[in-house]
Design a protein that fits this description.
mainly alpha, Tetracycline Repressor, domain 2, 2 domains, 10 helices, 0% strand, disordered N terminus
């Protein structure tokens, strides 16, 4: 005899579903609750089985039409509007611009490029929220076929701010001059994008140290002080 499934969601499953309805993704939900992405995925799979759905889209549709299925007495909170999300992303880019500008104080030094690179990473709660907003905007834009480039736009803004500064470091003989600033920054930008995506979903001390070590190693490889 096959046991009937227990259709009542656990407290954590319910919390995960509600965050999904608010526009969260597996990585951002995991970061919010301090869980691993695998654990969040398992909670969602269990919720699928209990509620008889097969995808996140079906789950969202079911809970919005029948909120009582997960113990809600009224309509669940609406997803953040696109205008509000776009404004939040705009403000996040403005904060990024300020952090990059603050990195370049005093005489030219390689440490300035390292600080400017770290400025783009989600190393604290505010910056992790900025990246979550960027990733959510990108996910919604992709779903609608809109070519909005966040978080790529944030990285492009970061790169544009650093081009002249990298040129100054090269002219001062502090970093390799055989690379075009645009190409050098494109490489750092790609490393930063990958590191940021991982840190948004798993920002414990060990993971932060690992990502910073990788990026710092690349920046340090540009140093000409030890070259003949």
């Amino acid at each position: 005899m096959t046991a009937e499934p227990n259709t009542k969601l656990t407290k954590r499953e319910k919390e995960v579903v509600l965050k999904l309805l608010e526009g969260g993704r597996v990585a951002t939900i995991a970061d919010h609750f301090g869980l691993s992405p695998r654990t969040v995925s398992n909670h969602l799979k269990s919720s699928f089985w209990k509620l008889g759905v097969h995808s996140q889209a079906e789950l969202i549709e079911l809970v919005r039409s029948e909120p009582q299925r997960i113990g809600l007495e009224k309509e669940p909170p609406a997803q953040m509007g696109m205008e509000e999300l776009e404004e939040r992303c705009h403000q996040a880019r403005e904060r990024l611009v300020r952090r990059v500008e603050e990195a370049y104080t005093g005489p030219p030094a390689l440490s300035q490029l390292r600080t400017a690179t770290r400025a783009a990473l989600p190393l604290d709660p505010e910056r992790r929220q900025d990246w979550r907003d960027w990733l959510e905007l990108r996910a919604r834009s992709d779903a609608k076929g809109d070519p909005t480039g966040d978080p790529q736009q944030g990285i492009e803004s970061w790169r544009e701010l650093n081009i002249d500064r990298v040129s100054c470091l090269q002219k001062a003989g502090l970093i390799r001059g055989d690379l075009k600033p645009e190409e050098l920054l494109a490489t750092i930008g790609a490393l930063t994008m990958g590191a940021a995506a991982r840190l948004v979903g798993n920002a414990n001390e060990a993971s932060i140290e690992r990502e910073l070590r990788m990026i710092d190693a690349f920046v340090d490889s540009l140093d000409t002080s030890g070259r003949p």
